[in-house]
Amino acid sequence: MQSDSSTLRLVRAGIDTYQQPVVYMHRDCPVCRSEGFTALSRVAIRSAGKELVATLNVVIDDHLDVDVAALSEMAWHALAPSEGAVAEIRHAEPPASTSALRAKVFGQRLSADAMRALVQDTVDARLSDIELAAFVTACAGDRLDHVETIALTRAMVDAGQRIAWFGEAIVDKHSVGGLPGNRTTPLVVAIAAAAGLCIPKTSSRAITSPAGTADTMEVMAPVDLDLRAMQRVVDREGGCVVWGGSVRLSPADDILIRVERPLDLDSEGQLVASVLSKKIAAGATHVLIDLPVGPTAKVRSNTNAYAIEQRFRATASAFGLHLRIARTDGTQPVGRGIGPSLEARDVLQVLRGDAVAPGDLRDRSLLLAGALLDLAPPPGCASGIVHARALLDSGAAYRKFVAICEAQGGFTEPCISQLVHSVRVQRSGIVRAIDNRRLARVAKLAGAPRARRAGVFLRLRVGDHVTAGDVLFDLHAESRGEMDYARSFVDAHPDIFDIA
């Protein structure tokens, strides 16, 4: 510490700012006055040999004493101060990657070193959200070429942990996304592990969708496993489905996604780097990509799909990955449930071979599992899809899935909400299209994924003949207020289902 006048006592604010470190200081704080801090200043906080760059929020009433600095949850855990700790707080030095960021904003190609500096500053929280938004915007569309995409992927891998596994073939599967439901991952993992493959699957939680794979899996088993626990599960059962945030794989990706999603900007290069950096960090050698294509999916045309496929292949080749891409139907949701518990119920129905199991989820899961088995054939497997179907129909995949759940901490049967409202067809006709994005919004307004039992249960699909009064879908909620929000949105958007 340089002097007492530049130090403040650290306290915990108890405010969740997600991945953004924030510090709260009173406007009459002597450090604020002497340093000339204003709201949203970037400040460096040094305490007990640790340093963190945070965004300043200024408190103008008496909720905060003038001699303390209150840290958001993310900042508190990053510094991990002891009781009564003090910190020196100064203006933060400009990030080393500032020149690289400006170069990309003005359309220049970034070198591998420049990309590495940007990613490292991202992980170290040295870039503000405004700077991150500028980077995301500068890379939007096709503004990253293949060389830059490879450099970004490598930088993202190097900035986090990497896992090493024994065995020649470590398989993984990822869906590019954009479809509500589409909970094929637990099914593919169960089939692949039952076939004897090693499939250590790390999955994400939802950010703007009604459920991520980790949210759905968490309904049935714990997913918040650290690296050692994850390795024990995989050693025992050959596969897992855990939350990737616990093992810190490609941490820059999680930060960029946080900024990218609200902007609703698609970047082919960042998409490919996001997916493959996590696969490489997780130790995968063979990767299957599910690429849904549809007018309201993430990839909206075959032209876009072709461009993304070429970028995936170029990047995978640079890292020695064996890659297969399955271009699939993205015109409507997959399965009937949208929301954690409803999607978990779909998964279990398919695994158990229930007569009411959604056929499209079963078929897509078999297609993807078969493609994965063809990519890395286990002994005695002549046809991937035939082998996958046999494992599913015999119950071997179900038994393996339950064993994985037990190894992760115990299997739990999903429960469904009792607060249900049926949305009915207003006129007779044929369902010609479903707006995936608006239907996902309905499930979110109903409370998903925070409310696990909330969401949407589909009754009709594209191509079905309907009569006025038929049920289109059921709304599930855990509170009357969220049910009312969802119903209001449905009433205001009668074109979620195109019926003619």
Automatic annotation (TrEMBL):
Keywords: Glycosyltransferase, Transferase. The keyword Lipoprotein does not apply. It is an enzyme of class 2 (transferase). Its EC number is 2.4.2.4. It catalyses: thymidine + phosphate = 2-deoxy-alpha-D-ribose 1-phosphate + thymine. Residues 430-497 form the Pyrimidine nucleoside phosphorylase C-terminal domain. InterPro entries: Glycosyl_Trfase_fam3, Glycosyl_Trfase_fam3_N_dom, Glycosyl_Trfase_fam3_N_dom_sf, Nuc_phospho_transferase, PYNP-like_C_sf, PYNP_C, Pyrmidine_PPase_CS, Thym_Pase_Put. Pfam families: Glycos_trans_3N, Glycos_transf_3, PYNP_C. The keyword Transferase applies. PROSITE patterns: THYMID_PHOSPHORYLASE. Belongs to the thymidine/pyrimidine-nucleoside phosphorylase family. Type 2 subfamily. NCBIfam families: ARCH_P_rylase, PRK04350.1. This is Putative thymidine phosphorylase. It comes from Noviluteimonas lactosilytica. The lineage of its organism: Bacteria, Pseudomonadati, Pseudomonadota, Gammaproteobacteria, Lysobacterales.
